[in-house]
Amino acid sequence: MQTTRVLARSAPWSTAPLPAGCMETLGARELESVLFTLAQTVEMRDAHTAGHCARLASLSVALGEELGLSEAELVALRRGGYLHDIGKIAVPDAILFKRGPLTADEWAVMRDHTVKGEEICRGIGSLRLTLPIIRNHHEHWDGTGYPDRLTGEQIPLLARIMQVVDVYDALVTARPYKPAMSHAQACRELADEARRGWRDPRLVSLFLTRFPGPESVLAQAA
Ligand SMILES: [Fe+2]
Question: Cα–Cα distance between 132 and 206 in angstroms, integer?
Fold first, then answer.
């Protein structure tokens, strides 16, 4: 009630920080609900990514089950599928939808969506296991990724799982600057990226075994 009054008094465009204690007063479930709505908003900004988050949630949980992960970890993967790119809410359209190559400064803003996303979700205890997915889903196995340049198993396992399914889904989805690859082409590209040292080779191998054909992916995403 107190929070409702506080928020109601704040102009929606206000950049002033919320009063101390405001986040605690808003229930964790309400906060989660707000965040998932925000995440959907991020997805809706780009018509070409429709359904991307739901597919990532399903595919990552399927891989997690193959690995025998705990229920809590599977829940974190499902949430991570929806929330991994929530930090893109802080990326201006001019950068997010730029057709040409990004400048160095624009890339810095784009890369920062991982850190911003973690900051947005950090206050919610129930998202503790999801935070590393949000922050580290663009790390590379060989240490050339971002934001922390982690290598190998330093990269949280849930983030490595999300990355494999994220890359696959991006490859099989048409974007304004590229056509969609077939399942077979995307699997070859994933295997190639593992050979080049970008992806966890064990997880890529598991993905290729778990999803031998496009119908196996569709069955998960249904
Ligand atoms: Fe991302």
Answer: 21
